[in-house]
Write a structure and sequence with these properties.
single chain, 256 residues, alpha/beta, 14 helices, 8 strands
């Protein structure tokens, strides 16, 4: 784990994941201060969906363990953890971090930014909104993680386009698979951020919940209302399993 990003407050372990004990401003400052030519390191932002998947597919664990920073992307998980008497890591959402990086860390005229995933329209919208002079974009085909040639092309794209910040927006666990491979191969530089759909919020392709809704921990309900057909199973069937996982961890901690 690169000490330039992870040093500082003790990590907070929850559901088998060691989350960074850093708040949003500390995370942003560390990423902004990291030289672009530094060996590649990546940031993951596990949310409820990720944590449930890890509970049934522990073989994915190394993809998160190899990350320089693991940041909790769920206010619901944090509140439930505290309710059950468990330690709650600081919440640093991928969407908030992505916006902060573009607004406060990226130097539009100087920094190279790489984007893996998303449409040409998304890349163009980001270039225009932030005045990015050096933006590289590659959108791999659907299911690329199961196609060795397409997976290699995605990895090589990021190796061949050194960027201060690389935004991996191809969904989990695909983005983590690419990021871990980049660390293992040791050719890439910069920081990779596994941020899912965050770029869609920045470009306006999807509307993010208002701040008051986010603060209430109801962003999931907002997203469900925006796209019920795609998200109903995730939020109404799969996500409630997090309660059982946290309750079980609390019971183990009490020796029950």
């Amino acid at each position: 784990m690169p000490s330039d990003l992870a040093a500082g407050p003790a990590p907070v372990r929850l559901l088998g994941v060691e989350f960074a004990g850093l708040g949003p401003d500390d995370v942003l400052d560390r990423l902004a201060a990291r030289p672009a030519a530094s060996p590649f390191a990546y940031v993951v932002t596990p949310n409820t969906d990720h944590l449930i998947r890890l509970s049934v597919k522990p073989e994915l664990g190394p993809l998160y363990e190899a990350a320089a920073l693991r940041l909790l992307d769920s206010r619901v998980v944090a509140r439930l953890a505290r309710l059950f008497g468990l330690p709650a890591p600081p919440v640093v959402t991928g969407s908030d971090l992505t916006e902060a990086l573009f607004e406060r860390a990226v130097v539009p005229a100087e920094d190279t930014v790489a984007i893996l995933g998303g449409s040409e329209e998304t890349a163009a919208a980001l270039r225009n909104r932030y005045g990015l002079a050096r933006l590289a974009h590659h959108n791999p085909p659907m299911g690329f993680d199961r196609d060795p040639a397409a997976l290699e092309a995605a990895i090589r794209f990021l190796e061949d386009h050194p960027a201060r910040f690389a935004f991996l927006a191809v969904g989990s666990p695909r983005q983590e698979i690419v990021a871990e491979a980049l660390v293992r191969r040791g050719k890439a530089t910069g920081v990779g951020l596994c941020i899912g759909a965050s770029l869609l919020f920045l470009t306006g392709a999807e509307r993010r919940a208002p701040g008051v809704v986010q603060g209430a921990g109801l962003e999931w309900a907002w997203r469900l209302a925006q796209d019920p057909r795609r998200l109903a199973r995730r939020y109404l069937v799969d996500s409630p399993q997090i309660v059982r996982l946290l309750w079980s961890e609390a019971r183990r901690g009490r020796g029950v």
